[in-house]
Specification:
With 211 residues, the chain is mainly beta. It has helices at 114-126, 174-177, 185-196, and strands at 2-5, 10-16, 22-27, 47-50, 59-62, 68-69, 74-83, 86-92, 101-102, 105-107, 130-141, 146-155, 166-173, 204-208. It has three helices and 14 strands. Strands 1, 2, 3, 7, 8, 9, 10, 11, 12, 13 and 14 form an eleven-stranded mixed beta sheet that branches. A three-stranded antiparallel beta sheet has the order 4-5-6, with no helix packed on it. The two termini are 21 Å apart.
């Protein structure tokens, strides 16, 4: 089953139904080339792409000391903070997508759980406190080597203000959000799923090959 969204040129393919709603989203253009090291961080010698013994894919490998560098996807955590039926969004003060609205979120820090990271990001960007966090969706951004985990949470009160990385923060009605051009497609897909099934009990999953 598939549908075409002409506004942004993406192809959406429904991969699975049931408690796990999985969407594959592709843009009609080639992927960016993955990051490639040039010099070893241990000895400074040149690195090259090769398949190490016992492996099955190319890795950055030092020509001199033989060190192998493995690249893993980074983890991003975001939250849908809800207060009396409205959703708290941030207007970005930094690139990428400066000036666009998005969910509060950022990179997971070492030593914290997904829930702790999502709660921290909400507070850092909006000074709002959230509770009862539940995992709502997952998005795999293949072209950026990112995995985004999106939580839904209840704001403890209506207190919030813009953090350093935000131009402003504001509560929106869901009907407003669905008409807005958000900063990131992963955020938009999660909010659209939330509008349809805020208490589905399942985890919505998206694959995004271009943003």
């Amino acid at each position: 089953m598939g549908s075409k969204n002409g506004r942004c040129g993406f192809q959406c393919e429904l991969l699975k139904t049931g408690p796990f709603a999985i969407l594959r989203w592709e843009k009609n253009q080639k992927h960016k080339e993955p990051f490639q090291m040039k010099h070893c961080s241990e000895c400074g010698s040149r690195t090259l792409k090769k398949i190490p013994e016992g492996d099955n894919r190319e890795r950055d490998t030092c020509e001199s000391c033989g060190r192998i560098f493995y690249q893993s996807s980074k983890i991003v955590v975001v939250c849908i903070p809800e207060w009396q039926g409205r959703i708290l969004l941030c207007r970005r003060a930094i690139e990428p997508r400066r000036g666009h609205w998005c969910l509060p979120g950022g990179y997971l820090e070492t030593g914290e759980t997904l829930e702790e990271g999502a709660s921290r990001e909400v507070y850092e960007e909006t000074f709002a406190s959230v509770e009862n966090l539940k995992l709502f969706s997952k998005a795999e951004l293949i072209h950026l080597n990112l995995v985004m985990f999106c939580f839904q949470g209840k704001m403890k009160n209506a207190s919030f203000q813009a953090g350093q990385e935000c131009l402003e923060v504001r509560l929106f009605e869901m009907s407003e959000l669905l008409e807005m051009e958000l900063a990131f497609n992963a955020h938009r897909f999660s909010l659209e799923a939330y509008a349809r099934e805020p208490d589905s009990g399942g985890i919505h999953s998206f694959r995004i090959d271009q943003d």
